[in-house]
Amino acid sequence: MLTRTDARARSLADLEPVPADSLIALIGMVNADPRPDKIDVGVGVFRDAAGNTPILKVMKEAEQRLVDTQVTKAYLGIAGDKRFAELLRPIVLGEHAGDQRIAGLQTPGGCGALRLGFELLATANPQARVLLGMPSWPNHAPIIHAVRLEAVEYPYYERGQGAIRFEDMVETLRSAKPGDIALLHGCCHNPTGADLSEDQWREVRDVVVDRGLIPLIDIAYQGFARGLEEDAFGVRLMLSACDEVVIAQSCDKNFSCYRDRVGSLWVKTGSVEATVTAMGHVFQHSREMWSMPPDHGAACAHIILEDRGLHARWLVELEGMRNRINSVRQRLAAADPRLAFIGRQFGMFSMLPLSPEQVLKLRTDHAIYMAESGRFNVVGMSDGQIDRFIAAVVEALDA
Questions:
Q1: What topology does CATH give the domain 19-56+322-398?
Q2: Catalytic: 218?
Q3: Is the pTM for the entire model greater than 0.85?
Q4: Cα within 13 Å of Cα(199), Cβ side
Q5: Where are the domains of the chain?
Q6: Spatial CB neighbours of 180, under 8 Å, sequence gap ≥ 6
Q7: Is 195 a catalytic residue?
Q8: Active-site pick, 79, 85, 137, 180
Q9: How confident is the model at residue 161 (pLDDT cuts 50, 70, 90)?
């Protein structure tokens, strides 16, 4: 018979408050600001010259085709749309697309791929440490902690100089133990915009191989820097050199289908047999978390990638997004010598050398919203807002 004791059982009422997500809170502040001229460079979505986040024309056509031809919404299975993954192989893996030691599956966005990849690595080696360059995407550390792995943080970026602290990165990698995990950004580093050069990638590869590390590469912005092929340089370099590689990929950005959550996870081991076993664990973890990934976005990407005409038009629209990102970067860089570093970087994000107080003043005086770190979305504004943004930032730098 159960009896009550002095020690009260813990319940939901005993949960500690969770610190507010600063970027989510920022979205709320933007929405609450009634000023019509407000500029939101905090949220991480592509915006065109008019300030809109468009649905790609090829995506609209693929969606209509899906409506017209889809005959069922029955489950696809734990791997999701298998043809979608097959069509991504040459895009992500390049010359390694035919390597049967590499297997992939659909995931709910790049975030789902990251969580699934870390779950697999934690299952294989619960003592592995994750080498995490800071600053990094805000969700990286929470995902690492959620799978109960230790994160070893090191300084990746010197904000005042707009440059990578490459020596610190290499020193940390060289101090790692065999089996530790090197979390690397494939391209368009979030939040700094500072990517490794090809020579730096080669040096990182050499250290990873020498120390017996496992690279986990997060490639969420392929095609937003130099091009689909060029942006996959680091991924393919690691695949050439390492027997074990994990890749978390996202289509949310380069297909502009953010809310549809379209991603994939890729796993390479030293043998076909080991990969089959690893994917068995991947399927089990996937079953435990979301069971089946959502279909709509991946089904549309499948249609686009499989149709030669739509595929070609997607590349044109992707080039248009990339060109806008790079042209806005050059416009910002030319405005003031202190902003010149922005023109040497890639992707949607950079970090301004502003204090939290200066960021707050921009918010209060100019209705310009960005993260307290100075991280901002270079294409978070319309063309018509760029000059006002530059003037306000230069004023803050001069203060």
A1: Aspartate Aminotransferase, domain 1 (3.90.1150)
A2: yes
A3: yes
A4: 1
A5: 19-56+322-398, 75-306
A6: 128, 129, 130, 131, 152, 211, 213, 214
A7: no
A8: 137
A9: confident
